[in-house]
């Protein structure tokens, strides 16, 4: 079954600090593209030492929900507007994360892992960054080791944080040249998919990958395995500007044709 390509389930705004455009700009863009549903998935992090800040505070989320309700009153007959969160996993802050999640009523909770604390380092490393400094650290540490940490952290997150969808399954170190998945990584991915299935979660198909690797995150073979396991798949553009809403959704039909569920 092909997912609903009229619904973009992963959209950010200027509120996260590294995107442009107000919430209303994204709503209008979605309507212009003929979408029927959009879900904002703004960043929540806890205990992360990194600059600049790329996530929302609770005060930001209070505004986010108020503005979301206003937009629903204006555009609700033309577009279903979901108010969700992309929560970044931090194994040292699980209780804080759970407390913060409980303060709001989310339409969707997406789960990801961006920031990794290296032993003895005062700051976290952004594993999804394309900044030169971060890439140099990744290369020095070694992609095989860091990717192993990435998949282990996602597996731990799925077990400990109640969420609706797993985001960025294979996007760790996505900007590092020469990144590869070893046999050990593929075993970790299989365990991760099994955990997603066990916790009745969905898997995100993130179309931002087309701009980086020429294919979505995750690629067709992982999508096929998820479908084989009966895991729902949800498309998301990971939009960081209004023009990104629904980007590359027209290519997803080919992904499902090339990798049908066994």
UniProtKB/TrEMBL annotation:
Its EC number is 3.1.3.15. It catalyses: L-histidinol phosphate + H2O = L-histidinol + phosphate. Pathway: Amino-acid biosynthesis; L-histidine biosynthesis; L-histidine from 5-phospho-alpha-D-ribose 1-diphosphate: step 8/9. CDD domains: PHP_HisPPase_Hisj_like (cd12110). The keyword Transcription regulation does not apply. Keywords: Amino-acid biosynthesis, Histidine biosynthesis, Hydrolase. It comes from the Bacteria. Residues 8-208 form the PHP domain. Belongs to the PHP hydrolase family. HisK subfamily. NCBIfam families: hisJ_fam. This is Histidinol-phosphatase. It comes from Desulfofustis limnaeus. The gene is hisK_1.
